[in-house]
Amino acid sequence: MDRRTRLLASAAITVGRLSDVLTPLGELFAAHGHELYLVGGTVRDAVLGRLGTDLDFTTDARPEVVQELMRGWADNLWDTGGLAFGTVSASKAGQQLEITTFRADSYDRVSRNPEVTFGDTLEADLVRRDFRVNAMAVRIGALGELEFVDPLDGMADLLEGVLDTPALPRDSFNDDPLRMLRGARFVSQLGFRLAPRVREAIVAMAAEIDRITAERVHAELDKLIGGEHPTEGIDVMVETGLAERVLPEVPAMKLEIDEHHQHKDVYEHSLTVLRQAIDQEEGDPDLVLRWAALLHDIGKPPTKKNEPGGGVSFHHHEVVGAKMVRKRMRALKYPKQFTEDVARLVYLHLRFHGYGKGQWTDSAVRRYVTDGAELLPRLHKLVRADCTTRNKRRAALLRSTYDDLEVRIEKLAEQEDLARVRPDLDGNAIMELLDIKPGPDVGRAWKFLKELRLDRGPLPREEAEAALLEWWQGTK
């Protein structure tokens, strides 16, 4: 049995496990004279043995007919705006279903918004899809029987691990430039490579990605960086010029030699840090950690300085880098908290290197924990991932030193609540002691006590009050 036959047999078994949903659905559509097919990523993932709970279908039935057929059969039925594009969304027995009428759209090639028109054949629907590996289908018969349908030979591409377009790449990308970025995303998710003609077309047409909204770009970037092979997907973006349009700070790092001279450039170093950060993940992809790992050194190009004797420095690149992260992620319409989390990790990633051989005071350790706050577990991983030296002795020393810092944090945490370092007096106590009313002075006093708490740890109330009174007298 050759590999194609084995994969198809395995896919049939995988899809067959969904018979409780597929058989009655096939019967329902057939009884009303309509065709029904599993299609797209659902079929691709079934062949690859990675089928999830999201099922995509296509049919000759018009959307209002699909909606009527599903009403009463599906557990839930809803419209998130897809109905205008021919898509009915539903759930059944824990599966999420999207059923879309055959499409035969045309594009204005100015935006990526199609003039939605419905088609009459499966073949015409498949040929308008992004890649041939996503243009395979499985017909669901009247009795739930399954028939693999592959008029564009997407299986051949899947077997070769290649991404090629059903139509000419230039035509496909002119219709919808987002498909170029989807190509890089599928490289990351599937571990496939771009067909030469696809890569050439992206290089020639990279600027067309500017037609796509920031929201759609950032959705694709998240899927790419959350894939199993994100560094390969990032490489595709950089090598084809897409990154220059959507994430220019990343290819800019290619020109910067890192100060340790241990890597070809900061770009390669950053990809290594990303891989090492991923190795520390537990469970699902951590997008905050991954973005911080990729972008932690983007402040190096604008802070590069050639030093006497041929050295290179990047002073305060973490400060500049955090500002650049905020600017880029805001442009890409990322949520405020997500943006701030990534920027804060970038800002803090160098802090540990002042630890030396453990000379930090308890006050410095408290500040490290307080500044890291809820991001501290991610900061631990980022700092460890940022050790990419090939010098085994130096790498072991860095690991040992960070181990020591984590032990100190644990010991301090046993003695005091490091997770919530707050002043020893609250606002009411401050106002009562200083005989002042609510206003800026209360905030200044609170800040003084917070700094005191960080420096000296928890204090008896009497000592905190005495220190506050002394400070207050000194401000007058």
CATH overall fold name of the largest domain = Hypothetical protein af1432
Indicate the overall shape. Answer: elongated
Name of the level-1 CATH class of the largest domain:
Mainly Alpha
Number of helices: 24
- The protein's oligomeric status is single chain
Counting helices, strands and paired strands, the structural category is alpha+beta
Count of domains: 4
CA-to-CA gap between the ends?
89 Å
CATH architecture annotation name of the largest domain: Orthogonal Bundle
The counted number of beta strands is 13
Poorly predicted tracts of residues? none
Helix content: 40-55%
Radius of gyration: 28 Å
| Main beta sheet strand tally, sense and closure | 7 strands, mixed
Question: What portion of the residues fall into strands of 2 or more residues?
Answer: 5-15%
Q: How do the strands of the widest beta sheet line up side by side?
A: 3-4-5-2-1-8-9
Kindly report the average pLDDT value.
89
Care to describe what's here?
With 476 residues, the protein is an alpha+beta fold. It has 4 domains: 3-159, Beta Polymerase, domain 2; 162-247, Hydrophobic Seed Protein (Orthogonal Bundle); 250-419, Orthogonal Bundle (Hypothetical protein af1432), CATH 1.10.3210; 422-474. The protein is 54% helix and 10% strand. The protein has 24 helices and 13 strands. It has helices spanning 3-16, 19-31, 41-48, 63-70, 122-127, 154-160, 169-175, 178-190, 196-205, 214-225, 230-240, 242-246, 249-252, 266-279, 287-295, 300-303, 317-331, 336-348, 362-372, 376-385, 392-415, 427-434, 440-456, 461-474, and strands spanning 36-39, 54-59, 76-78, 87-92, 95-101, 106-107, 114-115, 137-140, 146-149, 162-163, 193-194, 305-306, 312-313. Strands 3-4-5-2-1-8-9 form a 7-stranded mixed beta sheet. The protein has a two-stranded antiparallel sheet with strand order 6-7. A hairpin with an 8-residue loop joins strand 3 (76-78) and strand 4. The longest helix has 24 residues, at 392-415. It is elongated, with a radius of gyration of 28 Å. The N and C termini lie far apart (89 Å). The mean pLDDT is 89.
